[in-house]
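User
New here, help please:
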Amino acid sequence: MTDAIWHRGPDDRGELCEPGIALGMRRLSIIDVEHGQQPSANEDNTLVAIQNGEIYNFERSLADLAPRHTFRSRCDTEVIVHLYEELGEDFPKRLSGMYAVALWDRKRRRLVLVRDRLGIKPLYVAELPQGLAFASEVKALVAGGLVDPAVDPVGAELFMAYGYVPGPHTLFAGVRKLMPASTLVYQNGRITHEQSYWNAWDNVPPRRPRASWHEDTEELLAILRQSVREHMVSDVPLGLMLSGGVDSSLIGALMAEASPQPIKTFSVGFAGLAESNELADARRVARRLGSDHHELEVELRDDPSLLEDMLWHIEEPIADLSSLGFQLISQLARREVTVALSGQGADELFGGYRKHQIAYGADLIGRVPGAGAVAGALSRYAPPGSTVARGFAALAAGSPSERLLAMSRVTQSGQRKALLTEGFRSAAGEQAVSAAITQYHLPSNLSILEQTLELDRRLALVDQLFLYFDKMSMSASLEVRVPFMDDRLVSFSLALPDSRRVWRLRRKEILRRAARGLVEEHVLEKKKTGFFNAALEGWLRTHREGFVRDVLLDPRTVGRGQLEPRTLAAMIADAGESGRKNAQVIFAALMLELWQRLWVDGGVDALVGRFQPRPIPVLR
């Protein structure tokens, strides 16, 4: 099983096998490289723990625990067993970082699983007749013969709806995700309880309605500066994934402040797409930072078979090319460093997307009698699936779930009925699409913008962005850290009034003001593009008449009886054309089919060769 996830830790391995428990891990050595082997145990070996990730406040915990405990290393994992000795199952409340933890209590014969507060690190669980299986990647469960890969129809419908699979569901039948900020306890052959140990809203500081812009930006910068410094703690080389936008540029400026030598920066772009290629901007930022800069430009005509390797590592596909681009930038960075920081998460905290402008506008429109009905009527005249139609539908929505679904779905309910065959659609599918949102009970006093941001933080950020950040970076044995996802910064952001995020319809205003003087004005004022904003449509224009059509209209695909071939053929004809909105739908269908060809069709026997350790791909 550990061989199947060799890429997550090529430096070392550790295991514990005894009656009732089998623990195994792979180590990417970052802190206390020489002495930080796992599993870690307490003084009398009655407690044993393994973890994937980093605990950023471990040095403070170590200093607090050291007078009462004996430490064999200065590794963060050893802190876990001693915290459990003192706090029991409440020990995660003292952890700050990104982590998936498994702790075995030998005396009580109790297994405790923990996932970090914000869901940065994955943790999969399968409840089986012979016990509970868990792993950082599903392929470890498959390699151990514990899970026979099969598509989960509800997971498939969720994927076609959102372009990712919201937790706790996965695309694998019988496998689920442990939710963020959750503790699961398994004892006496069953899960005795599973509960949340942290809620961002419980730690929100009192609102300060009269706080000035200056006070708020200074507090934001103070928290972020401390977070960046904590995320830079490493005994191995580290760098920055630099997009050329506000978020990563600000992280870079704060890293440069804290580093005694020039930082290393890494950027990737797609050739031939001027509107989404930010390499020139990243280069400009790198010059200002004085960084040791490295970049890669990818051709859209590159072999589409790269998708198979991406699907192997990501395990749960997403319906855009971001994961492929992130895999390439991770390989580029791994040439130079073992750890890289990223600017991910700022948009979800401070309102960086167009839908956050729409949500802010919906609050204003809601004060005008009848305005929602007018917006609903206008949505019916806009091109189906267009940004305009989604915007009007969101403005007319009467609940947070309706609003987010209008803004964020890859396919609407009617589109899925036309695309998915009746025999494949799950009776529980549509309910699961709504339940993915309604499972989160939001505070009743939130504005529409606050509702939207909270759902973004708990859905797409976790099950789309963090998922591919972790899987794609670890495929190159690179650890990626996200300083914006400091729980103190999350709580601070929740206390801000809406006008700090969207000000005069300008997004992420407080972060722009906080970055002024650290990031040049050109970056602060430029239009947001993201890493690979327009790349998908360009990729489809390149490959639709060959690879895409050959896969989706192939007898093998049609024979599954899952996708309607006539609907697919019509969508493929439009895919990638200007003004058409089918690109993401087609790509989702393509990913679903390719995923089944890789993971399901040949069974475990066809996957055996992939479970063996292979050289980590590093771009030369």
Notes: The longest helix spans residues 213-231. The mean pLDDT is 89. The first strand starts at residue 12 and ends at 18.
